[in-house]
Amino acid sequence: MRLLFMRHGQTNYNLLGLCNGDPARDVHLTDTGIQQAMQAAEQLKTQRLDLILVSELPRTRQTAEIVNRTHQAEIRVHPAINDIRSGCEDRPVAEYQTAIAGDRLRGKVNDGESLLEYKQRVMDFLLWLQQQSWPCVLVVAHEETLRVVTAHFEHLPDEAMPDLHFANCQILSYTAP
Hints:
It contains six helices and five strands. It has helices at about 10-15, 30-45, 60-65, 95-100, 115-130, 145-155; strands spanning about 1-5, 50-55, 75, 135-140, 170-175. It has a five-stranded mixed sheet.
């Protein structure tokens, strides 16, 4: 199975430097984010996509719909790939990062989840995904998701995850058994 993972396009919250894990918030692609998604669509135009999986956060569906204009694949929502629950909804990302700086793997704020807790959620999703029979799946998700996925497929230690960074609409490709 070929697995493609992509971070969503730039959002209004990216520009403001704010945390968002709540699908009900008005977080949407900027004009730049739309352009990024269109560029990703161009990169993927010859790639067969059997299914596109997105989180419940609208920015992933918005990105997927732009990419899907040339594919017409089914788009399905999977809540396991929602962004990390930071516990800092609508607060600056810098505030969240400062709050967990003492332990970037286990640290958490308020009712949020730690990176290791989030990793378990994403690993459960990967296990489910690898049990499916689609030849090629595009997963449009979040930077934290790509951190976990990259560490998993590239056999990196957990400690490497916080230092992995991905651009908006960056595409990763892996082969799963």
